[in-house]
Design goal:
This protein is about 0% helix and about 55% strand. The chain is mostly beta strands.
Length: about 120
């Protein structure tokens, strides 16, 4: 059974930092692209950052230079370090695991963790 579990959300003041973690089990973690999306109330889900199995990274323009995604394949965990947080970063942050094969793809999502940036 595949499980994707996020942790580390919470309340932080503008300009502060927060670190999210996501542990995936039941998959060969090193074979999967991992990533973070976020969804604020009334908004569509948007991509935040991704990291491939080869550790290539991609960021949304809105978080470039402030957020860093990384992975530790020995711990089956992906991280999102968030610095210089802004109120508009407030959202539920969801972790996902993705693997594409020739004839199918596998996608698994976590339940999400709330990040609130407010004074």
């Amino acid at each position: 059974q595949v499980q994707v579990v996020e942790s580390g959300g919470g309340l932080v003041q503008p300009g502060g930092s927060l670190s999210l973690s996501c542990e995936a089990s039941g998959i060969i973690f090193s074979h999967y692209e991992m990533g973070w999306y976020r969804q604020a109330p009334g908004n569509q889900r948007e991509l935040v950052a991704t990291i491939t199995s080869g550790s290539n990274t991609h960021y949304a323009d809105s978080v470039k230079g402030r957020f860093t995604i990384s992975r530790d394949n020995t711990k089956n965990t992906v991280y999102l370090q968030m610095n210089s947080l802004k109120p508009e970063d407030t959202a539920v942050y969801l972790c996902y695991a993705h693997r594409a094969l020739i004839d199918r793809s596998y996608d698994y999502w976590g339940q999400g963790t709330q990040v609130t940036v407010s004074s």
